[in-house]
């Protein structure tokens, strides 16, 4: 009997790039991040076409039980005193969780539940992060290299950015040469 062997997609763990025919890529630029950064003037000073992060993912079947696999590549930099970060989101289907694995660089994963309680986890090569359902999440690059993280999540989860229109409860800034988390004062 001749059994065929398929060659599955692969990811280079040193940089998070996929080797596959069905990779979907998206670039998020400064101009796409309206209202994300506290210092609006500093954000406006950055050219709108400046890439902040790229996401590449395997094109996957849609439906219950199906999964996406992707990697986020977040550039280093700051807007005013805030570090570059992803937009961050809840899942549209709130009960859906996600798993991140740090691949390269140094940064933080900001997690926030629906009551606005936030916490930070260090992201570095090999770190594993279980993001429970009902939890918004955002990557923040506090290092000098690209921060890359592999992610696995249900294709049915969706993204809900509108639920965070007022932003996250914490901002991560560089003040007096130190990385600090600051509570956001709304109102």
Automatic annotation (TrEMBL):
Reactions accelerated catalytically: alpha-D-glucose 6-phosphate = beta-D-fructose 6-phosphate
Pfam family membership, one: GPI
MF terms in GO: isomerase activity
Enzyme Commission numbers on file: 5.3.1.9
Ranges for domain Glucose-6-phosphate isomerase prokaryote: 29-180
Annotated CDD domains: cupin_PGI
Gene3D superfamilies in the record: Jelly Rolls
InterPro entries: G6P_isomerase_prok (IPR010551), RmlC-like_jellyroll (IPR014710), RmlC_Cupin_sf (IPR011051)
Enzyme class: isomerase
Pathway(s) where this gene product acts: Carbohydrate degradation; glycolysis; D-glyceraldehyde 3-phosphate and glycerone phosphate from D-glucose: step 2/4
Sequence similarity: Belongs to the archaeal-type GPI family.
Name of the protein in question: glucose-6-phosphate isomerase
The species this protein was found in: Buttiauxella gaviniae
């Amino acid at each position: 009997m001749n059994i065929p062997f398929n060659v599955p997609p692969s990811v280079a763990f040193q940089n998070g790039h996929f080797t596959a025919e069905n990779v979907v890529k998206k670039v998020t630029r400064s101009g796409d991040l309206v209202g994300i950064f506290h210092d609006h003037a500093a954000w406006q000073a950055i050219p709108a076409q400046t890439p902040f992060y790229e996401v590449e993912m395997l094109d996957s079947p849609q439906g219950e039980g199906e999964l996406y696999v992707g990697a986020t590549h977040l550039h280093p930099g700051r807007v005013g005193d805030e570090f570059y970060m992803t937009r961050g989101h809840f899942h549209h289907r709130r009960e859906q969780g996600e798993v991140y694995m740090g691949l390269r660089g140094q940064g933080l994963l900001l997690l926030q539940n629906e009551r606005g309680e936030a916490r930070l986890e260090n992201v570095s090569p090999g770190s594993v992060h279980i993001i429970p359902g009902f939890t918004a999440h955002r990557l923040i690059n506090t290092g000098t290299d690209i921060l890359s993280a592999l992610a696995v999540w249900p294709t049915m989860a969706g993204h809900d950015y509108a639920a965070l229109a007022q932003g996250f409860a914490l901002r991560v800034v560089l003040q007096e040469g130190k990385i600090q988390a600051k509570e956001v004062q709304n109102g």
